[in-house]
Amino acid sequence: MPSALRASVDRYTPSGGQRRFLTTRDRTCRHPGCHVSAGWADLDHVIPHGAGGATDCANLCCLCRRHHRLKTHADGWTHTLSDDGVLTVITPSGVTRVTRPPGWRVLTESPDPPVESAPVIEDPPPF
């Protein structure tokens, strides 16, 4: 992850760069099975900001308003987010679901494959 995005901002609201990174990384609401576009989702602190959760990309993910409210207000739901953006959701009944960010590869890999050097031709062809 680019170092500028790893840095926390000292406020509740994420920076514009963090918003662009997260919507590109997540693409949709990260709740398992939800396909609401990240452009319509909230950027949610997995560890609540009021409980000391940082406003950085390792603690934020895109959740649609419905799933944001479920995470925040419903009892028994557990959400954890790894440094590489893998979200684990445990339901009140103990079912565990994991979602991986589909856009992560786009942000971490080079857009162009490595260029192999052309073979060296000692003598030109006879034509």
Would you write up a description of this structure?
Helix content is 23%, strand content 16%. It has 127 residues and is α+β, with helices and mostly antiparallel strands. The strands form two sheets. The protein has a three-stranded antiparallel β-sheet, with no helix packed on it. It has a two-stranded antiparallel sheet with strand order 1-2.
What's the rounded overall pLDDT mean? 83
Flag low-confidence runs. none
Structural class, please?
alpha+beta
- The succession of helices and strands, N to C, reads HHEEHEEEH
Helical fraction equals 10-25%
Order of strands in the sheet with most strands = 3-4-5
Query: Count the helices. How many?
Result: 4
**What is the general shape?**
globular
For the record, give the distance between the C-alpha atoms at the N and C termini, rounded to a whole number. Answer: 52 Å
Beta-strand content:
15-25%
Helices and strands in order:
Layout: H1 3-6, H2 16-26, E1 42-45, E2 60-63, H3 65-73, E3 78-81, E4 87-90, E5 96-99, H4 104-108
Antiparallel strand pairs: 1-2, 3-4, 4-5
